From TrEMBL:
The name this protein goes by in its record: CpaF family protein
Cited Gene3D superfamilies: 3.30.450.380, P-loop containing nucleotide triphosphate hydrolases
Organism: Alcanivorax profundi
Superkingdom field: Bacteria
AAA+ ATPase domain mapped to chain residues: 202-356
Family: Belongs to the GSP E family.
Molecular functions (GO terms): ATP hydrolysis activity
Taxon lineage: Bacteria, Pseudomonadati, Pseudomonadota, Gammaproteobacteria, Oceanospirillales
Length: 386
């Protein structure tokens, strides 16, 4: 057999899966309630029966592969199962049945797996969403959700997706890179780390800035470990990714609207509520919208040492983006007042960069030291070697 992505094999897998599902129904086996070992044995036997009845010439190796793939279809997420289980893979991107990409160490590459057809992709998406109480159909063709293991999944289907159903998965990891690992990989230096630790311990308000996939959450997680143990931390995220080894953390998570368009709880509402929960520091996973108003005001009114991330390609761009978010969120103030608010609230910006070979690094760390003439006066605390 020419491998797992061979078209003939995909057709065989489809027929075998349907046969096994029929056998499960006939024997009254409930997949969600059955013992895992019992299911493995049942599927293996059913696959063997199907191959024998149809006299399909398969080697022992191919038969074992077919049994594993069929089991993934029955109790898992089909072709995505081996990708989800591989700790080296950070992102999984399904652009269509035969176009699956993965990101490993910051580099995108084609994965050696494929789906049978568009219906197969949609079937896997719906299996992901079923335990979450979310739906995906023509009336609701786009969904953003979090899997039980913390991974984020976004799915979109026709008519919005013109070339077929698409899935984007950002895998959750509890094993964020340590400071030693980041230094060893060249992502930062010991001098840079010392500067960041000093900023955290001296309760500087910090924004981690960077483009897509530059490691903003990893950096936020790293520096948060140096918050003194006696302080109370409140984290606010769209999908919980921070793993703080700290004795006093309260984790809050936003909630999307339900199928009727109701029940949404925004990051801004959670920041407002967090201020009533006696936090020493607020850590906001990412600034995307109007929550920036409350965050800056919190930083200015006794919650020094708070942190967040923002999507931006340079420190100057980060400041401009914050200005833009304030403006579109209806913050009614003059341009001068807005710049003074930002300059007095923020103390340090950590700029991250992803290099062409996929490596990530801290490109610079700047301190905002406002002057009468320049509310965005920057002092460079660290710059990486170009």
């Amino acid at each position: 057999m020419a491998g797992r992505i061979d078209a003939e094999y995909q057709q065989l897998k489809d027929r075998t899966h349907r046969w096994v599902v029929e056998r499960l129904d006939e024997d009254g086996v409930e997949v969600n309630e059955a013992n895992n070992d019992v299911l493995v044995e049942f599927v293996r036997n059913a696959v063997g029966q199907h191959i024998a009845l149809n006299r399909v010439p398969l080697s022992t190796q191919d038969l074992n592969q077919l049994s594993r793939d069929t089991l993934d279809e029955v109790i898992g997420f089909g072709p995505l199962e081996p990708l989800l289980a591989d700790p080296k893979i950070n992102d999984i991107l399904v652009n269509g049945p035969d176009s699956v990409f993965i990101e490993v160490a910051g580099v995108l590459q084609k994965a050696p797996v494929r789906f049978i057809n568009d219906d197969h992709v949609i079937r896997v998406i719906r299996r992901m969403l079923a335990p979450l109480g979310r739906r995906l159909d023509e009336s609701s063709p786009m969904v953003d959700a979090r899997l039980p293991d913390g991974s984020r999944v976004n799915a979109i289907i026709p008519p919005l997706a013109l070339d077929g159903p698409s899935i984007s998965i950002r895998k959750f990891t509890r094993n964020h890179l340590s400071a030693d690992a980041l230094i060893e990989s060249g992502s930062l230096t010991q001098a840079c780390l010392d500067t960041l630790i000093k900023a955290v311990e001296s309760r500087r308000n910090i924004i981690v800035s960077g483009g897509t996939g530059t490691g903003k959450t990893t950096m936020l997680n790293l520096i948060s470990q140096h918050i003194p143990r006696e302080e109370r931390i409140l984290t606010i995220e769209d999908s919980a990714e921070l793993v703080l080894h700290h004795p006093h953390v309260v984790r809050l998570e936003t909630r999307p609207a339900n199928t009727e368009g109701k029940g949404r709880i925004s990051a801004r509402e959670l920041v407002v509520n967090a201020l009533r929960m006696r936090p020493d520091r607020i850590i906001l996973g990412e600034v995307r919208s109007s929550e920036i108003i409350e965050l800056l005001q919190a930083m200015n009114t006794g919650h020094e040492g708070s942190m967040s991330t923002i999507h931006s390609n340079s420190t100057r761009d980060a400041l401009v983006r914050i200005e833009t978010l304030l403006a579109v969120s209806g913050y009614d103030a003059s341009e001068q007042a807005i710049s003074r608010l930002i300059g007095s609230a923020l103390d340090v910006i950590i700029q991250l960069q992803r290099l062409p070979d996929g490596r990530r690094r801290v490109s610079e760390v700047v301190a905002l030291t406002p002057t009468e003439q320049d509310p965005y006066h920057l002092d460079y605390l660290y710059r990486s070697d170009p």
